Structure formats: structure tokens, C-alpha cells
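[09:14] KT: can someone run the structure on this one? pasting the chain below
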Amino acid sequence: MESLNTKEKIVTVINPSELLDHWQGHRGLTRRVIEAFPEKEFFEYSIGGMRPAAQLIQEIMDVSTGGIREMAGGEAGEIAGHTVKATSIADTLAIWDENTAELFENLAKIPADKFHDRILSFGQYEGTIWENIFYFLDNEIHHRAQAYVYLRSLGIEPPAFWDR
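[09:31] RB: done, C-alpha cells below
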């Protein structure tokens, strides 16, 4: 039997609500990693030339929140430098919570039918919206893993990576 369907079929593997739930788990886990650090080490400790955890966390916030803001029609903000805005872990957590709320508020503004649209994220990174969102998640996981290495080297047991 010959099919007369000429329109491309798109099968949804994950919907925006499920993506949001998944990302919220990652954000919560990263927050618990921040909480596990001693104050001084969060801002100063590094291994092998890697940046301190505070800078890694700032990058996560700058890239993910700015990128999603841009996708929702706003200004992306600056992604170079990742200047740490907080002076304590408590400040970092407050900024993290504000960023997380903004990120998810803006993520909800992106219609599902736009996820395959090609964009130029931050004016320089070409890809689809979903590819960029996955990069933001990958970036968070990567930097959280670096923070895990720091915690372990300090003799601190990090939160279980699967407990999202």
C-alpha cells in the first residue's frame, strides 16, 4: 500500500512541560551543590587551572537565563567574562533563585512549535531553539561536575547526582 502522506510527521518525544520539570530537577541539584561548599572555597578554590565554583555558577546563570530570555523575545545580556555578582553563598543562592524563576518564566513563553526554529543565540551561536536549550542544560551539568570534583577534593560528599 502506498502512502499518500506528503507532510513531514513530527513525533513529540518530550513536551515543554516535561522539559521544564527535568530542568527544575537539575537546577535544584545544582543549588544543593552550591550549598555544600564552604564559603571561602566557593569563591577561591580551584584545581588544575579551572575557575572557582562561583565563576562556574555565574556562567551557568549568565548563559541559561540570558539565552532563554533572548529566545522569549528579550535581551540576552552579556556572556563574556562571567563576573561574579555575589559576595557570599547566601547572595549566590538568592541570585540563583531569581535567575531560576526568570529562566522558567521565559521558557514558558516559548511556543512548542518554535523549538525547531533556527536562531543565532547571543548573536553568534547558530542552532535550533531546542539545540540551544540542550546546550544550556549540558553546560550546567558540566560545571556542576567540576564543582563535584572540588567538593570531593575538599573531603566533602556532594549531593547524589541522581537525586533531582
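[09:33] KT: thanks! The chain has a mean pLDDT of 90.
[09:34] RB: yep, looked fine to me
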